[in-house]
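Box S1 | Example of a co-folding query
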Amino acid sequence: MHPNLRLHPTLLLLLAALPLSVAAQTHKPSTPEFTFKVIHAYPHDPQAFTQGLLYHDGFLYEGTGLHGRSSLRKVRLETGEVLQKIDLPEEFFGEGIAFHKNEIIQLTWLSHTGFVYDAAEFHLLRQFSYQGEGWGLATGAPGTSELFLSDGTPEIRVLDANTLAEKRRFTVRDGGKTIDQLNELEFVEGELFANIWQTDKIARINPQTGKVLGWIDLKGLLSPMYNLEPGEVLNGIAYDPIHKRLFVTGKLWPNLFEIRPIPKPSK
Ligand SMILES: [Ca+2]
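Box S1 (continued) | Returned holo structure for calcium ion
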């Protein structure tokens, strides 16, 4: 501590005696919070249990989950029309997807099995194995050949996109608190965005350290008139780096949105 910042012992005693709630108010949350503006609303297949979402060369690619309903799709953004689709065998519960070179990689939830398809025809090229659960997957910064993988824990694995071997991992923390339930992922302008499962929140994460840089609160994005079931939560982030468009949707949601995060007014 800097000598000038040393507190007098009497003051320390006074601070220790303060009720916790008052003491907490002296430490305002330092992690920036964002709300959102809807730029466009698009149709989304309400039968698609979205587990993976990405944007590439003018089209959306979507991985869906549930046994017997898992698939990989190419989707027209403007209409939600499914242009191309391959179904997974019923024993697999599809999870996150990522684009690498001319291939699409897809995780499964509990099967320790991933699939690699050629992106043009969706032909299955090979399978691979990994430890633990598979939740979200995202391609890292251009030129790094990195993939980010979430598994429901506070840890994010960084894979070599060519070999799919683990290179490193980091723990996601907001201040001193570890953050788990990290679900669908997207790499956006140098940050890793993660849906927090069963919430309306997206964490903005430093992909080197795991530090949470901000929170995007998407509460109220989908109209309450849709009466969502408990499992029909926000999940799915895609980014168009050319036009800097950020897309989000949810499991079985009727809409997909282009949004713009905007700083939350301070209270
Ligand atoms: Ca994504």
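The longest helix spans residues 9-17. The radius of gyration is 20 Å.
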